[in-house]
TrEMBL record:
Source taxonomy: Bacteria, Pseudomonadati, Pseudomonadota, Betaproteobacteria, Burkholderiales
Protein name (database record): LytTR family DNA-binding domain-containing protein
Occurrences of domain HTH LytTR-type (ranges): 167-269
Modified residues (4-aspartylphosphate): 58
Molecular functions per Gene Ontology: DNA binding
Domain Response regulatory intervals: 6-125
Key words, A-Z: DNA-binding, Phosphoprotein
Organism, as annotated: Roseateles flavus
InterPro entries from the UniProt entry: CheY-like_superfamily, LytR-like, LytTR_DNA-bd_dom, Sig_transdc_resp-reg_receiver
Keyword Cell membrane attached: no
Length: 269
């Protein structure tokens, strides 16, 4: 007997969530809907517990956006298991939908159109059939790159924000002016970001995702949703028995986690 296809809906608007649930059940016989999630944290927990094959994810949610939730899910997804297919549900106008390339990730525009949902279902079914036929468990490279691109395109940019050259960071009652060239890595820590140099560690009150927008992406690489490192500081990357990667630094003891979404940076030349 064929196992039912597990689908997770993540949507913080109850009426829209219920409507999408009803449309999916009517248009896609044989699927099984998981309990609906109305926020990013619930989405991450449900996805990693039940491992759905398809996720319909609202982009705009309080505290944790759909993009952030999707990244967290894919980072923790079991190695060797086919990645879930992602469909983002968005209220962005048509001008912004060019951000989606119709490749690794699909989208639905609010208010939902049954015709558009039917086309999305057909695309999902085609991709599922291709995966079954090829036995390909999927790769995070395409999805990870697409999530990063979408985050950069769709996230509002800070007006007038200039690229950083110096970090003003606190250590107790002292504020240090740290040249960006001295920073080994940044690490998210609750409401703060740790700034780590060879001499000290300090804190800044800024979300890592906002800090990234003011860093040169050629010099500073994101390795994980919580870690950004100065590329020239990386000495090696090691693969562990559980399949996870970690990055070691020149002359520093830190071992930084490397998400599967960013592992493509370290393919052997």
């Amino acid at each position: 007997m064929t196992e039912p296809l597990l689908v997770l809906i993540v949507e913080d608007e109850p009426v829209l969530a219920k409507r999408l649930q009803e449309q999916l059940l009517a248009l896609w016989p044989g699927l099984e809907l998981l309990p609906m999630a109305d926020n990013g944290a619930a989405a991450i927990a449900l996805a990693l517990e039940h491992l759905p094959r398809v996720i319909f994810m609202d982009i705009h949610m309080p505290a944790c956006s759909g993009l952030e939730a999707a990244q967290a899910i894919l980072e923790e997804w079991p190695e060797g298991l086919a990645l879930p297919l992602l469909v983002f549900v968005t209220a962005y106008g048509h001008y912004a939908l060019q951000a989606f390339d119709h490749g690794a990730i699909d989208y639905l525009l609010k208010p939902l159109s049954q015709d558009r949902l039917q086309r999305t279902i057909q695309r999902l079914q085609d991709r599922l059939a291709l995966t079954r036929a090829s036995g390909d468990a999927g790769t995070a490279d395409d999805v990870g790159a697409e999530l990063q691109r979408l985050d950069g395109v769709l996230r509002p940019q800070t007006a007038g924000a200039e690229p950083l050259s110096v970090i003003n960071a606190a250590v107790g009652s002292v504020t240090y002016l740290i040249p960006l060239a001295d920073v080994l890595y940044f690490e998210a820590a609750d409401k703060y970001v740790r700034v780590v140099t060879r001499q000290r560690e300090a804190l800044i009150r800024m979300a890592l995702r906002d800090l990234v927008l003011r860093l040169d992406p050629q010099r500073f690489w994101q390795l994980h949703r919580s870690v950004v490192v100065q590329a020239s500081a990386i000495a090696h990357v090691a693969r562990h028995d559980n399949g996870r990667l970690s990055a070691g630094l020149h002359g520093h003891e830190a071992q930084l986690p490397v998400s599967r979404l960013f592992a493509h940076r370290f393919r052997a030349m």
